[in-house]
Amino acid sequence: MVLLFPFRQHGFQSDRKELPYLYTEDVTKFYSTLTRGLDNLEKAVSSDGFSFTFLGLAIDLLRSTHSGVLLVTEKLRLPSCCKGEEWLNEYMDETVKLLDVCNVVKAGISGMEHYQVLVDVAVRALETLTNVRHQGQRALHALLTCKQEMSRIENEHKVLMEHKIEAEGKLAVNSLCDKHVENKFVKWNGFWGVLFAMKITSSYICRLLLSTVVYAGPSLSVSFETVAVRVPWTNSLVRLQQCVNDEITKTRNVRKCTFMLLNEVEVLESALGELRAQLNNGVRGHGTSQEDAEKIRQRALSLKQFVQKFQTGVETFDWHVNDLFDEIVEGRNKLLNIVNSSTR
Questions:
Q1: Contact indicator for 58, 208 with CB cutoff of 8 Å
Q2: What does the angle CA 243 – CA 10 – CA 179 come to, to the nearest 5 degrees?
Q3: Domain ranges of the chain
Q4: What is the mean pLDDT of each run of 10 residues along the chain (344 residues)?
Q5: Are the CB atoms for 285 and 133 separated by under 8 Å?
Q6: Are 39 and 32 in contact (CB under 8 A)?
Q7: What's an example GO cellular component term for this entry (predicted)?
């Protein structure tokens, strides 16, 4: 079972003061960009749910957060010797988690690509139907193959999440409820706060990505903890989680795909399930007319157009994940080169 990250709005105290603005312009700009990205993601969940549009915005947010961190490191002239290297170690630790998540998401994408190919085969079998009773068995077999593939993906993705993410605690975060955390925000000329924001938001967004395209588990409940730091980006993060919770609650009892949140997969699973039931009746002799076959062909044509959009969505998302992976690798190398050259 995978639980999305815990935050609770009533953890804020009404008499609590905002954190002091002791940051450089670049650090302030980083926080503003992060806040806007979280707000945009909340709007995407509200309007489209967990769709390919949401996935694109989530990846964009991870990319902009990472690039923003790199920009801040260049502007702040961080120490590169003695204890000052601690900031580099923390950056490296967080980015290696992002790389690991990218690899798991890529595995999820691979599963969706194979599923899409099988759905395409089933749709082509449906397009050629002229008599449901005599030709429906082949199409029904193709549809059942899609169902079996989805079961295989569920088992594979569950094991992948348990071994690669959950067992190693890669996305565990508990420091947001630490009441002493705000005192550290100005450490390293404010860079500690930037790294903290990257850690918290990236971990939560990665959790959403994994739950959308890899595995969210049959139980989609969310546990809550207290937020001790009141700043705009944490406010936005709390609102995003509440929106996510509402979306999950709204769809929990009606979803055909119980382990993956992606809307487009849910649409495919629902359509294929209805076609399986219709074809099964036809093969048994309960619907043999040409009219029945024509209805199925029309549904297959509509489904074919959706499958093409699904394929485009998967390919585009795959490109975005590859770009994120490459940018993280380049950023790590860039910082290592800067530190190494400054210590010579």
A1: yes
A2: 115
A3: 9-336
A4: 34 38 75 94 94 96 94 75 66 92 95 95 83 75 94 94 78 58 67 86 91 76 50 85 88 85 94 88 63 80 92 96 96 84 61
A5: yes
A6: no
A7: membrane
